[in-house]
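Components:
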Amino acid sequence: MTTASASPRGVAILGATGSIGTSALRVLGRQRDRFAVRALTAHASVEAMAQLASTWRPSFVGVTNPNGTPTDAAWRTGPGVLSEAATLADVDIVLNAVVGAAGLGATLAALRAGKRVALANKESLVAGGELVTAAAQERGGELIPVDSEHSAILQCIAAHPTSSIRRLVITASGGPFRDWDERRIAGATREDALRHPTWSMGRKITVDSATLANKALEVIEAHFLFGVPYDRIDVVVHPQSIVHSMVEFSDGSVVAQLGVPSMELPILYALTHPERVEDGGVPRFDPVASSPLTFEPVRAAAFPMLGLGIAAGRAGGLAPAVFNAANEAAVERFLAGAISFGDIPRFVERALEQEAAGSVAGSRPTLDAIQGADLRARRSVMENS
Ligand code: NAD
Ligand code: MG
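Structure:
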């Protein structure tokens, strides 16, 4: 389809005030004949939301945690607004751009209502992988990744069957500590960790990119999205963030997707997949200006969060939810100045050990079990010192 359809498709943006939400609204501003913004939610940024509401005039505005700040009387408030926005009758596509496992309920609700979920909120797939993929298969919803690596893989796989995939190669920028030694990394400050070399993003994912926890979350995300076993998913460091990921097929051919590092590209593709539409909003790729493109192995010992997260993915059951929740809590404490950068993997490992002692890995968890494990993991990190 190269022409706009008669009636635009309705879009809900959960987490509209964040980095992904803001990029998505830039894309939607250029695609007004194809898509209409019908619902917006934010967490606590009431003023930013007021601005967005007056610009976009969506029929639904939700604030999950207004914190006593006065809101417009027509706005909905409280944690339930995510699932409410995700299931509105005039919404076809739910862009879940909330940060953290707080987005899980809305991902499930949208899929169960038969919506397309454009998923930036990777934590919901990590915490509830089996539940989310089952909801997508059983109720006619669609799960399309926004994460640049997974958008790349989706585009590389195209119509090829899973059986023809030999290996997924997920690229990682390496973050700000790519060439730091282990001791220096352990003592990194908040300012060091928030200085990402290639991407401008929310604070939590920026810290995750410095520990490489983000890459572990992405390996688990790829496992659930594409049904590829963990021993056929590799990570390689590619500091330029131009090759967004690669797929090696059974005949040995490797297909990669390239582009300038801008989230507007994967956001647009998640809205239009499998079609492509005209959009001139992002700088064009210039191979000569982008040269050289380099690749190097991950220094596993310097970035223990990567190995811990992949091991949790392999263990299955509640382990990925525990890894995710413990990481969320540890990053929050690090950003609050309460713990060191080196404490993040120590505290997450402790939470995983505590959970492993009391649960059966590999079983298919219920939502209740996931939420229980999530709470225990956060508590473990909050009580650790
Ligand atoms: P951000 O912190 O900039 O924005 C988060 C948004 O979610 C805000 O609108 C905030 O109001 C809302 N929010 C925060 N806590 C919430 C809660 N408990 N309940 C409901 N809403 C809440 O984060 P971001 O960088 O935009 O990332 C959002 C998601 O997208 C994350 O899962 C991240 O891993 C993923 N992602 C981001 C990028 C990027 O470039 N920023 C790239 C790939 C994936
Ligand atoms: Mg990514």
